[in-house]
Amino acid sequence: MRMVDLIEKKRDGKTLTKDEIDFIINGYTAKEIPDYQMSALLMAIFYQDMTDEEISNLTLAMANSGEIIDLSSIEGVKVDKHSTGGVGDTTTLVLAPLVASVGVPVAKMSGRGLGFTGGTLDKFESIPGFRIELSDQEFIDIVNKSKVAVIGQSGNLAPADKLLYALRDVTGTVDSIPLIASSIMSKKIAAGADAIVLDVTTGEGAFMKNLEDAKRLAQTMVRIGKLAGRQTMAVISDMSEPLGEAIGNSLEIVEAIDTLKGEGPEDLTEMCYVLGSQMVVLAGKAETLDDARQLLKEALDSGKALEKFREMIEDQGGDSSVVDHPEKLLTARYESELPAKTSGYVTKLVANEIGIAAMLLGAGRKTKEDAIDHAVGIKLHKKVGEKVEAGESLLTIYANTEEIQEVEKLLYENIEIGDQAVEPTLIHGIVTE
Ligand code: URA
Ligand code: CA
């Protein structure tokens, strides 16, 4: 087989066979196929798309390019949750202890932030002492003991995806449905969960800017998951404005603690119930979504979920006193308010640009090697649909420098205030087929 023939085949809109896809992924992972040929193929896929069968063959080839984790020594149905990316997306921090507190094992493999999106690992690391590097055995032991643990992606998990993602990032081929679907699902399949709940985001703060594309991405991933023998479903959620009020690592830990106390932002709390109920049903701990929601609500109201968060922090070496004293985490040197210039209703908070503002403060990375500042970020006081008076604070900026003019300018440019109240939509649909 010759790579050039396969590039031409895809360029001309034909379908690649399983053997051809295996040849490509194995060859590229072994560094026998050079980046320039792979780049040409990625661009051909971007324009010509792939059939469902091609996408599942690509996903399985990528999953099989490295280690497939065996979680069978953890009792029960292991459920994973994965978001396609967002701004201020604090759900995992709440969901992991919440769902575990009703007896569902949560063996969560999470990532770091890049660009305007945040990463769950970075957020957990803002808790002093918290370790995300656990051996496989330590990870399994903790989940068996406490039902929940979170770790980083190990070096040999879907290495083909790691190589391809880096190449896509610099060749204009990130936002392609077959490439995103195979990238995410290869990692989920390799990470070993029995059931997968996908949060497919749509809007300015997501890869899929429109609902049609988000639906197709969701349907594609659900189909692949099922073909791979994993129960899979997707929630299509809105990411045109940031989720919740906090954007930034320590700030989101505080927001998660508030939410686990029943005092969190409405949209984040609802998102956790929607995704959490799906996880509980897939794990077989409740028959209906209503029953699952009731279980989760009881765990939250009784303080059981918050206790689980405390236990989770201790299991992973962290200082759990932050649960009672979250103010310990708020260590940024400067806090400043951003006053509204006019009165009216907030009609737009452009998620990706607000994510960039948080990144400029130091909460995120411009390149994979950048260090991040856990203390900094943004706390929104007005969300889309809320009324605001001129001079009232729209948000607080937490910074470690006084030079925040550029950030303030960017924020003003991306917050719209109008005369008409608008009603934001949180959930755009559920995909199970
Ligand atoms: N997240 C991933 O892991 N891969 C993509 O391609 C997009 C989002
Ligand atoms: Ca948030």
Topology, element by element:
Blueprint: H1 3-11, H2 18-29, H3 35-48, H4 52-63, E1 79-83, H5 91-100, E2 106-110, H6 120-124, H7 136-146, E3 148-152, H8 159-169, H9 177-190, E4 195-202, H10 211-227, E5 231-238, E6 246-247, H11 249-260, H12 266-282, H13 289-301, H14 304-315, E7 334-339, E8 344-349, H15 351-361, E9 377-380, E10 387-388, E11 393-399, H16 405-413, E12 415-418, E13 427-431
What does the model show?
One of its GO terms (cellular component) is cytosol. It is an enzyme of class 2 (transferase). GO terms for molecular function: 1,4-alpha-oligoglucan phosphorylase activity; metal ion binding; thymidine phosphorylase activity. The protein has 433 residues and is of the alpha/beta class. The protein has 3 domains: 3-48, Transferase, Pyrimidine Nucleoside Phosphorylase, Chain C (Transferase, Pyrimidine Nucleoside Phosphorylase, Chain A, domain 3, Up-down Bundle); 79-325, Nucleoside phosphorylase/phosphoribosyltransferase catalytic domain (Pyrimidine Nucleoside Phosphorylase, Chain A, domain 2), CATH 3.40.1030; 332-418, Alpha-Beta Complex (Aldehyde Oxidoreductase, domain 3), CATH 3.90.1170. It has helices at 3-11, 18-29, 35-48, 52-63, 91-100, 120-124, 136-146, 159-169, 177-190, 211-227, 249-260, 266-282, 289-301, 304-315, 351-361, 405-413; strands spanning 79-83, 106-110, 148-152, 195-202, 231-238, 246-247, 334-339, 344-349, 377-380, 387-388, 393-399, 415-418, 427-431. Strands 1-4-5-13 form a 4-stranded mixed β-sheet, with helices on both faces. Strands 6-9-11-7 form a 4-stranded antiparallel β-sheet, sandwiched between helices. Strand 4, helix 10 and strand 5 form a beta-alpha-beta unit. Helix 1 (3-11) packs parallel to helix 3. The longest helix has 17 residues, at 211-227. It is globular.
